[in-house]
Amino acid sequence: MLSVLTVNVNGIRAAHRRGGLAWLADAKPDVICLQEVRATHEQLHATLADSPLQGWNVAHAPAPQLGRAGVAILTRKQPAEVREVMKDPVLGNSGRWVEVDLDAKQGPLTVVSVYVHTGEAETQKQVDKYAFLEAMDTRLKALRARATRSGGEVVVCGDFNIAHHEIDIKNWRGNRGNAGFLVEEREYLDRWFAKQWVDLGRTLGGDGPGPYTWWSWRGRGFDTDGGWRIDYVIATPGLAARATTAVVGKAPTYAERWSDHAPLTVTFK
Predict the structure, then answer these.
(1) pLDDT band at 87 (very low <50, low <70, confident <90, very high)
(2) Mean pLDDT, residues 235-258
(3) Is 42 exposed, middle or buried (0-12, 13-18, 19+ CB in 10 A)?
(4) Which of 46, 163, 246, 249 has the highest Cβ tally under 10 A?
(5) Cα angle for residues 185, 189, 195 (degrees, 5° grid)
(6) Spatial separation of the C-alpha atoms in residues 172 and 176, rounded to whole Å
(7) Catalytic member of 101, 159, 168, 199
């Protein structure tokens, strides 16, 4: 059995103060992928040392700008290799992509934690988002080819900030022209999920609507389940065939939230 959990913590120090790291430890995953860590190496390690996740192996790619982005992967077992910064000028040194290789029982496994920023339609932010998605597309192809050569598998986890279909966003009509539900963004997911990658949150999560993974802090969206499904665990077909469950850990009440995202956990046999 292998349990992989992904969550945008919306700042790991704030999440810890709200009980988030205790929640993650209680979930007992084997691998934890984090996005929007928003911490330096020193701050992240100090926060983990003060939590039930003390002692886990940490691969961390912080953003150059303090208090922005940042991704990490926590593993119980020591990774065989960590790649924090790649040669790609977009993926590398952006605090939005980190990958590790693990020696799993069934063979080599590459785990990726990725954060795709929100974007904003018809602005430079959206141009930058498309540039990142293009770089991500290139890297996904390379990882897929590498896995095929080595006989390994790949799982990519993170906040893509894109709702794929109408069933993945409560107010899809009102968001047709907004970043996160633009046709051009969704076409990347169409391409990835057509043959090469399996969207486990959907294949194991039912026909929808939902299950959503993000709700605004503002208004009553959380209470009325007016959310978006923008957090993903996608896997190569061989690994996806071993997936048994995908569970969104939505907080029981608004007061018990420790992030605006809910964790998504996928279990593999």
Answers:
(1) low
(2) 97
(3) exposed
(4) 163
(5) 150
(6) 6
(7) 159
Main-chain phi, psi angles of 43, to 5 degrees: -65, -40
Contact in structure between 97 and 145 (CB atoms under 8 Å): no
pTM (whole model) above 0.90: yes
pLDDT for the residue numbered 97: 95
β-pair type (264-268, 2-8)? antiparallel
The torsion angles phi and psi of 178, rounded to 5 degrees, stand at -105, 150
pLDDT in tens, 144-176: 999 999 899 999 999 999 999 999 999 999 899
Q: E strand or H helix at 118, and its extent?
A: none
159 labelled catalytic: yes
Amino acid identity, residue 182? L
Dist CA 37 CA 11 (whole Å) = 5
User: For the chain, which domains are there?
Assistant: 2-268 (3.60.10.10)
Mean pLDDT of 203-210: 94
Calculate the CA dihedral of residues 43, 115, 124, 177 and round it to 10 degrees.
-130
